[in-house]
Write a structure and sequence with these properties.
Structural class: alpha/beta
Helix content: 40-55%
Number of domains: 2
Largest sheet: 7 strands, mixed
Organism: Roseburia yibonii
GO molecular function: cysteine desulfurase activity
Catalytic activity: (sulfur carrier)-H + L-cysteine = (sulfur carrier)-SH + L-alanine
Oligomer: single chain
Strand order of the largest sheet: 2-8-7-6-5-3-4
Strand content: 5-15%
Function: Catalyzes the removal of elemental sulfur atoms from cysteine to produce alanine.
CATH superfamily of the largest domain: Type I PLP-dependent aspartate aminotransferase-like (Major domain)
Bound molecules: pyridoxal-5'-phosphate
CATH topology of the largest domain: Aspartate Aminotransferase, domain 2
Pfam families: Aminotran_5 (PF00266)
Radius of gyration: 22 Å
CATH architecture of the largest domain: 3-Layer(aba) Sandwich
Number of helices: 12
């Protein structure tokens, strides 16, 4: 199979041609500062406001509730740190989960150093928060709950509607990191009473370095980046106009193409999961089959080291991931797999394959064949596998 097969869409995506086309005039030509008053600036301003509507429409928000940021990490830092510090007088307790992205986990760690107390909820074997456990964790001094919409490693979608309602009933601020869910699955801030939601453009065929924080009207979140009065005084810094325009276009495409993308990716994902589990012994699927992002498959191959598997797949032209790209090289074992109870030696053989809107059935078939071969090769070299085989004889 010629060319590269990209199965790491949860790490990042290539911008869509329509996105590139929308951005181009703002990279060269229409370079005005969106805060200036002459025509060149007004053109940029109008483009930013158009993008704000495009982003708002994905989740049923009002444009005024969208604040552009430099991406998901900034949105998470802003939501958690600023909300926690603002509500400090009411209490110092925060609830999150053990499977959050490091933008949330490390923001919580930083807050612990400032004297906040954080409860990291367990999840079930599929990676879902048990709402009963959440209710039990709430204390009179709980000021903030943050639970991700969908997990970046194993694709598990959380019962966000239920969680948001629990938080609202107790008047606790609720934030969700929706970076992996925004534009991928239906989200409605009209139906779900969440207060803040983080997104990122580059997981969605938009450019890197841009995203937004949705802040529900009436939620008094102060700014995190101080400076000029951009974004209605909530987020200083000259607007990244080409980036914002690209993000807006990517959001619009995601909204329009969502049913089609979901149907297509789900079908290919299920094909992939079925064939990998059937063709390769001693393999498990991480995460559940229900409540799973349409594009995510995550496996553990026993007696295999994930890093070695990545190298062999790379030689076949396949881009995949073990644990999450953001923590590659940091920690050998994924905190997410640990939280869902995968034993350490099995978690070491994890592989995440995340499909995209242009993934083809041929690519999936080729990937299954390559995986079969690569896993077999690695197991042939594995002492643990040889020992295990002996016990079978
Ligand atoms: C990628 C990702 C982030 C970080 O977003 P950036 O725009 O890369 O900073 C945060 N949360 C989740 C769940 C992610 O997948």
């Amino acid at each position: 199979m010629p060319g590269m097969i990209y199965l790491d869409h949860a790490a990042t995506t290539q911008i869509a041609p329509e996105v590139l086309e929308a951005m181009q005039p703002f990279l060269f030509g229409k370079y005005g500062n969106a805060s200036t008053l002459y025509d060149l600036g007004k053109i940029s301003k109008e483009a930013v406001e158009h993008a704000r509507r495009q982003a708002a429409d994905v989740i049923g928000a009002k444009p005024e509730e969208i604040y552009f940021t430099s991406g998901g990490s900034e949105a998470d830092n802003w939501a958690l740190k600023t909300a926690a510090r603002m509500y400090r007088r009411r209490g110092n307790h925060i609830i999150t989960t053990k499977i959050e992205h490091h933008a949330v986990l490390n923001s919580c760690k930083a807050l612990e150093e400032e004297g906040f107390s954080v409860t990291y909820l367990n999840v079930d074997e599929e990676g879902r928060v048990r709402t009963e456990e959440l209710k039990r964790a709430i204390r009179p001094n709980t000021i903030l709950i943050s639970v991700m919409y969908a997990n970046n490693e194993i694709g598990t979608i959380q019962p966000i509607d239920e969680i948001a309602k629990i938080a609202k009933a107790r008047r606790i601020l609720f934030h969700t990191d929706a970076v992996q869910a925004y534009g991928q699955i239906p989200i409605s801030v009209q139906q779900t009473p969440l207060d803040m939601l983080s997104t990122s453009s580059h997981k969605l065929y938009g450019p890197k370095g841009v995203g937004c924080l949705y802040i529900r009207e009436g939620t008094p979140l102060k700014s995190y980046i101080d400076g000029g009065g951009q974004e209605r005084g909530k987020r200083a810094g000259t607007e990244n106009v080409p980036g914002i325009v690209g993000f807006g276009k990517a959001s619009e495409l995601a909204r329009i193409e969502m049913p089609y993308r979901i149907a297509r990716e789900t079908r290919l994902r299920d094909e992939l999961i079925k064939n990998v589990l059937r063709e390769i012994p001693y393999t498990r699927l991480n995460g559940g089959r229900e409540n799973r992002l349409p594009n995510n498959a995550n496996f553990c191959f026993q007696f295999v080291e994930g890093g070695n598997l990545l190298v062999l797949l790379d030689m076949k032209g396949i881009c995949a991931s073990t644990a999450s790209a953001c923590s590659a090289g940091e920690k050998p074992v994924s905190h997410v797999l640990k939280a869902i109870g995968v034993p350490e030696e099995i978690a070491a053989g994890s592989l995440r394959l995340t499909l995209g809107k242009n993934t083809t059935p041929e690519e999936i078939a080729y990937t299954v064949e390559c995986l079969k071969e690569c896993v077999r090769k690695l197991r042939e070299k594995s002492l643990a596998y040889k020992e295990y085989e002996k016990t079978l004889r």
